[in-house]
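Inputs:
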Amino acid sequence: MSTPPAPSERFPTCLVVDFGAQYAQLIARRVREAHVYSEIVPHSITAAEVRERRPAAIVLSGGPRSVHVEGAPRLDPEIYELGIPILGICYGAQLVAQQLGGEVARGGTGEYGRTELTVTDGSGLFADQPVHQTVWMSHFDGITRVPEGFRATATTDGAPVAALESPERRIWAVQHHPEVSHTPFGQQLLRHFLHHLAGIPPTWTMTSIIEQQVEAIRAQVGDARVICALSGGVDSAVAAALVHKAVGPQLTCVFVDTGLLRRGEGEQVVETFRRHQRIELIHVRAADRFFEALAGVTDPEHKRKIVGELFIRIFEEAAGGLEDARFLVQGTLYPDVIESGGGDGAATIKSHHNVGGLPEDMSFELVEPLRALFKDEVRRVGEELGLPEEIVWRQPFPGPGLAVRIIGEVTPEKVATLQHADAIVREELARAGLEREVWQAFAVLPDIRSVGVMGDERTYAHPIIVRAVTSEDAMTADWARLPYDVLASMSSRIINEVPGINRVAYDITSKPPGTIEWE
Ligand code: XMP
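Outputs:
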């Protein structure tokens, strides 16, 4: 089996050391926005491991509240001696100070949120930046003395040493968070560190990412046949388009149309891939089989299981005709790789509650062209490859589809009703220009009826629940404060246009305690 070359073999790489407080991912993304390839590594990395990876720079991320906490993570001190440019951020800055012989005072009042910073030495990290600027702080302890050979370069009211550096040792550090949008000059600071102080050329661009992946896919696949299950979602779509660019007709896509997608999405997948991308596509119209399997089933977990298992069976049937296929494309993203703890480790099939999750006994080698990419990069690659906006910017959608947005039994009639109402929700949101302001927006069809009056007639019909949330990562979410007039037009259009609906409610529950979906 050939291993595809990793981006780190081709691009100068900035390692982002993770001290376990969720700052690392955002920093890694910001580094990439500065067109430098980044990888997240655990803080337990040793100097020997760093040397072997030959990074062009290292960023130490934020971490726990205090370097004085018992068991607070440390960095292998030899890493400071390697001569690799280092930028310490927040906790990372305190570590630099503490581990190299300076002093970090315990406690005090700390600083949280927007803070005024004064640059006292603009010759290094703060070059070309205003002397007075706003930064985002979140720290409890403070650096009180810089290590020998270092000098302080900025102060705030609460932090006498808000930044420090030793250009001779190639180490720079800031107490604030340059990676957050509340620090207006933060990205400029990161760029200056990467491009000028560390001297890394800005080569991580969409064109070069695509080139590198195309090369890697070709090296892995050779002239073998590759198959890909398309779900209609952005990840599998972009992965397929990349593989197609690399090996053209060696790729066959399988699209299992469950009949549980949103209105128009099935047709769009076929249209995009077959007509525009000219990818060989096996389109399995399987709605009847799904409805049959779901008849009479009301339990949410049971529904999920039925949809997932049937999807796999149908995919296997379709793929069975492609006996020579050796490779299977998976749209695994970098955050999945980090979460499963496997930097370079063996590929594992993404199985978490997704219909795209395929059985482990399938004897395919995996092709994972998005394995090094964050979601926003995947979207940009998709745009660059000419995929339509509707696919590239598609909202997250549950694998079991509308089956988990219909409370109770799933029938073709209920799916048609929900698709209709859901299309109106999307249209009205788009008309208000709010599509990208929300994480997800959709309609839910509950299994209840209520009394209403339309014209002179008494009605007894189903309601539609409109759900719209804002979120960063779906782990937590807040209900979207949609303007009343947008909600009003959704409501009146749904009631006027969708037969069998006589009431519309808006879900104003955040997550937690609610979930985003209703089932
Ligand atoms: P919840 O409802 O748990 O959803 O707040 C969090 C995110 O996950 C999506 N979701 C699913 N995705 N299969 C999937 O592939 C599922 O069974 C499933 N259930 C929820 C949901 O749309 C939201 O983005």
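Remarks. The chain has three domains: 10-197, 206-392, 405-506. The chain is about 30% helix and 20% strand.
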